[in-house]
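Recap slide: Heparanase, sequence and predicted structure.
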Amino acid sequence: MKSAATASFTIVALALFGALYVGAKTVISVDDVQSIRVDLDLSHVARRVDERFLSVAIDASLITEEKFMNLLNSPKLRTLAKALIPAFLRFGGTKQDFMKFNPRGRSFQARDNSSSAVLGNRCHLRLELPPLLENRLKQEWVLQSKTLLQEELEGKYKKTKFSEYAVDLLYAFANCSGLDLIFGLNALLRTSENTWDSTNAELLLKYCESREYVMSWELGNEPNSYEKKAGIRVDGYQLGQDFVHLHQILQQSAVYNSTGLYGPDVSQPRDHRRDLLTGFLETGAKAITACTWHHYYVNGRDTSLEDFLDPEVLDTLATKINEVLEIVESASPGKKVWLGETSSAYGGGAVGLSDTFVAGFMWLDKLGLAAKLGLDVVIRQVLIGSGTYHLVDDNLDPLPDYWLSLLYKRLVGPEVLKAEVNMNSGPKKPIRVYLHCTNRKSTHYRPGAVTLFALNLNKNEVTVILPDHMANSTIEAFVLQSAEAGEQSLYSRSVKLNGQVLRMVDDRTLPLLKGRELPPGEHIKLPGFSFAFYVLIEAQAAVCK
């Protein structure tokens, strides 16, 4: 078969789209046969993202009662986390600006009698929760989550303290799972001059340094909302100076003098948020390793199923990314930009949507678009924590977005290839396609393989026809669909891979994620309301070797 290394090829997708109705509202109405042409350029890498591009977060709300940090000793949760490496693990969120390190505080003891230092640095001791204790904590966490949600709704946040034990549990989880920890410090500890009071942070840093805990740092979460949440206003200029102060402290540390520092974790740009980000970069850009911002598509309290399937809603991300990239490039050319916290809906997620199959359309499209436009890392809110946008449920079982994330990790490499989509369907584009080199660590694929991933936001199946020279190429398909049929399928909290429902084999074992090899010459068929990864094993892309 001839090489496609310097060629572009075209995918023609043919689908007969009818109007899609959810309730009484028309979401997409495309009545005629549509052809979709996607020119895929395998001759050069358009962008290269960090190998930890898809990363995850633990919400700081987990520490509001220290006993819940023991959930991080769950063997099931560690199994799920380890499967997502390489990745960053961010510990932060709203509650980080209301928590304070309190050494020698009372701690909730696990069964192991080892010192807390051993907790953090040793993995082979198998410091695991007894099943009865794990089940009790999971039940209590459900009630705690409701309390935290009420706190969020009222906008009144209780201050909390945490001890060395909580830090040890967090670090042990990250360390034993192979995740790179980023710890979010409290920026609302202020002096009378409204500068950051670093006293408590220095106490925490000293403790972590004494234990030789290798981690990176953040300072504050969504500073644009400080006035609303705490009655304190911090402008961008001052915030930048606060980061410079923290950077100077880190420089004096034998352990953290070359560690990462990320910020300012501002919400997506709008009005004064743009000014805050600009002011921050003017004074603080030199202190940070990468510039972080947050993005959510919709308000979790008033969104709908239609929003999760609306191409126009998905397209809003591109506008926000370009705005941030423009601001950062103007103030600090070449600075890496991360989505430091992101999911589908803000306010803790959308009940009945953010943890279901339909959320995968927003998540996979965000991953594709963020890499395509130049973001280096995307941190998913959350692996575990309060809200409804988590990757695991109340029993710590994986939800659809977890399985989607796992497949992405295994099949998609950091090299972004160019894909140009041409459609006749007007502004709404119900079929979305992205292309990367296949993950080279998936060793059974040949060098030069590429991974095409696609989303079908319509109810009708799409036939994808590859050009003649690829017609007999070997293609391995990984098609994700709701585990349920009928009108409620998009609300499912289970997912099928090539027709098989995905479940853990046991608490320590994930199932084999088997692709389906398409017979030579068989066209790709992307089912309605599905997303899929197609590994073109014989693409022979020189840039992917």
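Residues 131-154 form the longest helix (24 residues).
DSSP finds twelve helices and 26 strands in the chain.
(End of recap.)
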